[in-house]
Write a structure and sequence with these properties.
Elements (H helix, E strand, L loop, with lengths): L9 H5 L4 H28 L12 H37 L1
Keywords: Coiled coil
Length: 96
């Protein structure tokens, strides 16, 4: 399984991103790509396109890959949350 590699800025690449920050970056990319897809579909339907939107032919595939990666990150986040809860339950039951 290949993971989507977000297009990070130079500053983001120089930092180690937390899980929440990675999710935020991917959500921002989803918004941008969704706008590109809408613009492309409008172009196909009506023959007009916003000047500031460039649409690549694989934008929809890229969007799907981002959503899959975002879903994976949310699953990791959820698993971490459950793991912390279980660890807290174990430590509180031991102290009783």
């Amino acid at each position: 399984m290949s993971f989507y590699k977000p297009k990070l800025s130079a500053l983001q690449r120089s930092q180690i991103l937390t899980l929440d920050e990675r999710i935020q970056v991917l959500e921002q990319e989803i918004e941008k790509l969704a706008r590109d897809v809408r613009a492309y579909k409008n172009y196909e339907r009506y023959g007009s396109q916003s000047d500031d939107v460039s649409v690549e032919s694989d934008t929809e595939d890229e969007l799907i890959n981002i959503v899959v990666e975002l879903t994976n990150l949310h699953a990791i986040e959820h698993a971490e949350f459950v793991r912390r809860l279980m660890c807290n339950d174990d430590s509180s039951s031991e102290s009783d």
